[in-house]
Amino acid sequence: MQPLAREFIAAVREAARDGELGDTTRAEWSRTRDLLADLSRERAAQGFSPTETATFVFSFKQAIFKRLRSEFGSDAETLAEETWTATELFDKLGLYTAEIYQKAREEVIVRQQQEMLELSTPVVELWHGILALPLIGTLDSNRTQIVMQNLLEAIVAKSAGIAIIDITGVPTVDTLVAQHLLKTVAAARLMGAECIISGIRPQIAQTIIHLGVDLGGVLTKATLADAFQVALRKKGLAVAKG
Amino acid sequence: MGDFLLVTIQVDMHDRLAITLQEDLTERIVNDRTRGVLIDISALDIVDSFIGRTLGNIASMSRILDAETVVVGMQPSVAITLVELGLSLPGIRTALNVDRGMDLLRESLERG
Amino acid sequence: MVVGKASEIRVASQDDVVVVRQAVRARAVEIGLNLVDQTKIVTAASELARNTVVYGGGGTVLLESLLDGGRRGLRLTFEDRGPGITDIEKAMQDGYTTGVGLGLGLGGARRLVSEFHITSRPGEGTQVRVTKWNG
User: Fold this and answer.
1) Does C83 touch chain B (CB under 8 A)?
2) What is the interface pTM, i.e. ipTM, of the complex?
3) Beta carbon pairs, B and C, within 8 Å
4) Which of B72, B71, B60, B73 is nearest to B26 (CA)?
5) pLDDT, tens digit, 9 for 90 and up, residues A21-49
6) Contact C51/C104 with Cβ under 8 angstroms?
7) Reduced 3-state DSSP string for A171-216
8) Which residue of chain B is at minimal alpha-carbon distance from A183?
9) What is the SS3 assignment for A75?
10) Is A129 inside any structural domain?
11) Which is higher by pLDDT, C43 or A171?
12) Which CATH architecture fits C2-133?
């Protein structure tokens, strides 16, 4: 903490010497800003609160006021003016740390959302050349898009000719999601792979018909097991009792 | 390679090149009595409506000349974009890679 | 907000269409678009550049990198002094064409980008402006 405080004071002093105290967005304040930005990001990552982060800046106020009093003690008007300038300056710098802190937290949230999306969409290989994508939970347009990209990439990586999209665990499907599913099937076909959609629940089947989405060209099966059997047959394989 | 013709596209296709390819290919199909054509587009980072249409034309023309065309190796990002563009290339057979494409051609030749 | 340097490319021949694709790709990579979004904006650029050559009798495209809050974007402005489009709504429909294409150019390009704006005056020319944002 000590060296950081010293560095901060040095940066402020340098900026204040040849700069404008009222406007901390100017170039001479860039070193101070960078310093505070690093501090805020670090503290956000370590789980400090925004108050604790801003307190780093505010804690200098007392020392500064003391110094001002000893320098202008007899001149009340100048003292009041200088105190106000200092207050304004440190409030601005303190708020700046809060702003950066918030941004850093938002970045963390976005990254976590991304990671969760990736975790929640496992593509598994059921057999050589047969992939399955068991979807669970509500599908929004954004998630569907990422899921589908992952599936298409897995098709190339595993050179899988057949992919089963199982939606048993999906409670509802809206028009946009249904269209994404269809687009995925179409894209897979362009790449030379065939998709089977399994586990369409009765309500979803009704919704799909109601929405006027045409699943005509798509192979659908009631269960993942049925779909797997079809996939095996397409590869010239069969399951037999040993 | 026997009865099959393998075309690997490795450059950024401009329109004239696409037309030249179409012309050269149909000529080769006739001269070499080719029964199957594999077009490997795994190196293409985009397929726009013009290139897509050229591929479709090659497929229909070769069909008339009694040859099958299989387009192989389309990248996922290219496939997603083509679908979004509104081009699903219904008349074109596809395969994941050259080997799969050969299997497909052999099967359809055996069948008839 | 426009950031960095804008660049303008002449779009007069079919070879220029390839040049435009490559320039758009380079910028899309630079601003950090993911592979699918790169492919979409490059494909849209290819369609629009071909329109500029075939229907507009040649023109230009302006490439600009944008910054809006945390988002980054790529904006392309195609301009020609061709005959213009009388019925824009009709021209946007899939399957409509006055030329040799499939008629997927304008409507297709619109589906590949985040923002699409077209202005056209018969006899004066056409301007198409598209933007792709990362996210």
Assistant:
1) no
2) 0.93
3) 71
4) B60
5) 778 888 888 888 898 988 898 888 888 88
6) no
7) CCCCHHHHHHHHHHHHHHHHHCCEEEEECCCHHHHHHHHHHCCCCC
8) B83
9) coil
10) yes
11) C43
12) 2-Layer Sandwich (3.30)
